[in-house]
Amino acid sequence: MTLGLESWTLARPEIFLAAATLLLLVYGVVRGEVATPFVSAATSAVLLVTAALLFAPYQEGTAFASLFLVDRLTATMKALVLIGASVAVLMSRAYFEQAKAWRFEYPLLVALATLGMMLMISANDLMALYVGLELQSLALYVIAAFQRDNLRSTEAGVKYFVLGSVASGMLLFGASLIYGFCGGTAFVQISRALLDGRAAEFGVVVGLVFVVAGLAFKVSAVPFHMWTPDVYEGAPTPVTALFAVAPKIAAVSLLVSVLMGPFKPLFLQWQQIIIVAAVLSMALGAFAALRQQNIKRLMAYSSIGNVGYVLLGLASGSEKGIQAIVFYLAIYLVMTLGVFATILMMRRRGVMVESVSDLAGLAKSQPMMALAMLLFMFSLAGIPPLAGFWGKLYIFIAAVEAQLFVPAVLGVLASVVASYYYLRIVKVMYFDEATEAPLDRAPFGIHRAVALVAALLVTVFSLVPQPLSLIAAAAAKGLFP
Fold first, then answer.
1. Would you say residue 420 lies in a domain?
2. The predicted structure's pLDDT at residue 307
């Protein structure tokens, strides 16, 4: 296998991120704990520079004997992942400093997890896919339990690790079946074997079911969602913010690449699986969150519901469906980071609080914070004309055009039900009287800045969704030459 200059050029963002992370790791080890502030800031900067390298200059192609793919869709998804990871690192410092758990290893673990996500997104072979997935997962298992003195954090890490290992095993078993029936692990080989009729279709479908099950775990789709509420609630809040955006976007991108790439000839078979997962995810996300009192646990069920809408777009199997997915994920990234920035500001007498009832009277004590939260909740609920409404509208239009009428109607009904718990938060903030002291007024720092920027972006995307829609259309076009 010859590795030309072109291969290294196409992978320059990943190479830069890996090299910079290793250098920062050496610096942290040599300098000790005093290096933590610098390593944290430098990691965020490295992640943003990596995002810039994706497009400056922009190139497409395959690298490393076609193990690695770069196109407009992969570059866009990587940019979303890098932005999400960078903001999550910035939001972590104040939280971990107060918990006396701020160490230089944390931002580096996030960087390594992000590197794994980027390799996942660009995977063009089942083995490359698995290596990227495990690099991401191993780092995420550690940061879920990063607060070692906290019982809930340790429990979250153990649950995530045990269930994640089972999911990885299922994915690897499915990949071995596909290799046996198709005679190769490269996406091109699999696609060619299916189109030529050389692969036993039933055997490949069985393998594909296991692969989809492993990936469904990573995106928290029903029935592989069982880890999500406990891990979201137990993990440190900045870690939950990271889990809610970056790994989910990476796994959705991988699912799209796998199903719409090598397994596109089996569209009618896997479409049924995705439709069932989409409908169940939307339903569970809507109904299970109705009685949740912990806001992080509520956001876990919200994320499950949102994955259902994304899977509905994938089930359409059309260019418009993939465009709707990219658009929706970009909106979801902004809304979710804004919500978690607000959650991180929920303190009473310096202590973090996580109950929905703790937001009572927030509109009187901190009107700007309440207004930002109102925007995020209305947008997540899909209330027009906010950005979340456009995201759901594009998904449902794609589903209807693909004649998925029943799933689309069920999705609309699930969205109506889910509006209840989003609006309940608004009702608590604006109409409930506070029974305890008001929440502490957060100084202007990274959390307030992230919430402000997210609120502004939601407003801009609500009023002018066309530029983002054009970016999403360009990203989706690569899968439909």
1. yes
2. 93
**Can you name the residues that pair with 442 across neighbouring β-strands?**
none
* Alpha-carbon distances of 458 from 81, 260, 285, 463, rounded to whole Å: 18, 30, 22, 9
CB count in 10 Å sphere of residue 6: 12
DSSP one-letter code for 355: B
Provide the residue range defining the domain that includes 297.
267-481
* Six-digit token string for 362: 């927030």
For residue 369, give the amino acid letter.
Answer: M
Q: Give which of 74, 190, 65, 68 is closest to 124, Cα–Cα.
A: 68
Distance CA 149, CA 162 (A): 20
* Average pLDDT score over residue span 375-391: 90
Give the model's pLDDT for residue 173: 93
| CB neighbour burial string for 367-389, b if at least 16 within 10 angstroms, e if fewer | eebbebbbbbbbbbbbeeebbbb
With beta carbons less than 8 A apart as the criterion, state whether 28 and 95 touch.
no
Q: For residue 103, give the DSSP letter.
A: -
Among residues 260, 167, 148, the alpha carbon closest in space to that of 220 is found at 167
Residue 2 pLDDT > 50: no
Residue 397: the pLDDT is 94
| Residue 205 within a domain | no
Look at residue 123 and give its three-state secondary structure. Answer: strand
d(CA 156, CA 144): 6
Q: Which residues pair with 123 in a beta bridge?
A: 68
Portion of the chain with pLDDT greater than 90, in percent: 48
Type of residue numbered 152: R
Instruction: Report the candidate in 218, 225, 226, 221 with the shortest Cα–Cα distance to residue 247.
Output: 218
- State how far the Cα of 255 lies from the Cα of 274, in Å rounded to an integer: 10
Mutual orientation of helices 126-144 and 105-121 as an angle, nearest 10°?
160
- What's the rounded mean pLDDT across residues 245-254? 92
Q: Where are the alpha helices (DSSP H) in 54-186?
A: 72-90, 92-98, 105-121, 126-144, 151-182
Predicted TM-score (pTM) of this structure = 0.92
d(CA 310, CA 314): 7
Q: Number of folded domains in the chain?
A: 1
Q: What average pLDDT does the segment 472-480 reach?
A: 86
Residue pair 37/54 in contact by the 8 Å Cβ criterion? no
Asked if the structure places residue 12 within a domain, the reply is no
Q: Does 382 map to a domain?
A: yes
- What is the distance between the alpha carbons of residues 298 and 288, in angstroms, rounded to a whole number? 9
pLDDT at 283: 93
What is the rounded average pLDDT of the residues 447-455?
91
Q: Which residues pair with 347 in a beta bridge?
A: 352
Predicted local distance difference test score (pLDDT) of residue 61 = 84
Which token pair is 211? 């692969």
Tokens coding 394: 């594009």
Helix axes 367-381, 387-401, angle to 10 degrees: 0
